[in-house]
Amino acid sequence: IIMATNPNLAGDGTALYISSLLRNTGVKITRLARGLPTGSTIEYASGKMLTDAIIGRQKLE
Length: 61
What we know:
Structural class: mainly alpha
Largest sheet: 2 strands, parallel
Shape: globular
Number of helices: 2
Low-confidence stretches: none
Helix content: 25-40%
Strand content: 5-15%
Number of domains: 1
Radius of gyration: 14 Å
């Protein structure tokens, strides 16, 4: 299951609630990646957005 909720408090809460209901089913549950949107600038990014972008960073190859 891919959780595609909004990246805000309500979306985070909904995703956590649904994943807690499905935790013991053996179903793989993931969420969409979050972070800086393409074309945006860092100076307008919130602290939460920057944190998500740092946590979800990927190796350049």
